[in-house]
Amino acid sequence: MSDPASEFDGPWKEALDLYFRYFIELFFPEIDRDVDWERALEFQDKELQQIAPTAAAGRGIVDKLVKVWTRHGKQECVFVHVEVQTQNDPNLAQRMYQYNHRLEDKYGSMPVSLAVLGDYGRGWRPTEFQAGRWGCEVKFTFPVAKVADWRNKEHKLEQSPNPFTAFILAHLKTVETDRNPDDRLTWKLRVVKRLYDRGMSYTDLLQMFRLIDWMMTLPPDLANTFTRDIEAFEKEKEMPIITPSERLWKEQGRTEGRTEGRFDGIQLGLKLRFGSPGLDLMPRVRQLTDPSAVETFFNAIETAPDLGALRNMLPPQPQA
Fold first, then answer.
1. What is the pLDDT of residues 279-294, one digit of tens each?
2. CA–CA dist 302, 31 (Å, integer)
3. Left, alpha or beta for 163 (phi > 0: left; psi -120 to 50: alpha)?
4. Rounded-to-integer distance, Cα 199 and Cα 208, Å
5. What would the pLDDT profile of 1-30 be if each residue is shown by its tens digit?
6. Which PANTHER family would you find in this protein's record (predicted)?
7. Which end of the chain has the smaller Cβ count within 10 Å, N or C?
8. In sequence order, which residues have a C-beta less than 8 Å from that of residue 131 and are 6 or more positions away?
9. Strands 77-85, 61-69: parallel, antiparallel or unpaired by DSSP?
């Protein structure tokens, strides 16, 4: 990928957590019409990890398991497994079948498995897995959404009332501008500035800005240009997206480009939001060894409802 490397996994994980209903509405409208969105969603990521320990372990793969309730007829719960695959993977169909089968064994009913293909080409579109011999056969089919189907539909994505379309536009332009950071800067500014015209709440505006900023990475010099341009734009709109202190810790955490730099940014962010109690988490933060886990925690500081939510993301307290 481009330099710096584009980031898809972390933004997709959080986007599904924050905007799962809008994701379903955009890509799977038939399911959207049958889900009772008045009932709370239950994310079952830990259960998915127990069923498939390798789920989301590789770069380019995001897995989510969500418990929803049907709207029509006899109400019942349905487990929805979503896999986002951002690279061409010949094992995707078999993996979809395996996870579906394991989840059915655990919960006693067949879940709904959905695949999202985030690669740039339009040709790769697996929708089924077949296996068998001597008359013993299995055929497993699953719905697929292809992000590349939205190519050359920028106007439609920008005009849609569904906020998830801003995230999809950011994904498309991140892929399209691979190895072309100047074009990426242009599109990143456009996608972010158009957020103001979508009628979002301030919270949604902040969340979506963070996800786009996280995904559409830029080299340090262009990142500084982006920051200056957005600051000027914020003054016009009289509605800043992030405060100067938040900007400081974001820059400290991101421009280093290394895990240690992330730790410095996390320490500053915890101090700014939670004071001394926040800094007490640093020994546990430094136990994080997976760079993607460090990045996820870094980004969660901004929107976590309380310190307890962040504490639950960390390994157990180190023993004295």
1. 889 999 988 888 778 8
2. 32
3. alpha
4. 13
5. 334 456 788 889 889 999 999 999 999 999
6. SLL1691 PROTEIN
7. C
8. 137, 138
9. antiparallel
User: Which tokens hold the place of 202?
Assistant: 């301030």
Place of tokens 């996870």: 99
Separation CA 2–CA 319 (nearest Å):
41
Q: Which residues pair with residue 243 across a beta bridge?
A: none
For residue 55, the SS3 value is coil
CB atoms within 10 A of CB 18: 20
Encoded tokens for 276: 């001394």
| Coil vs helix vs strand at 25 | helix
Helices (H), 65-153: 92-107
The beta strands (E) that lie in the chain are given as 42-43, 61-69, 77-85, 112-117, 128-133, 136-141, 144-146
Q: Which two tokens stand for residue 306?
A: 């309380």
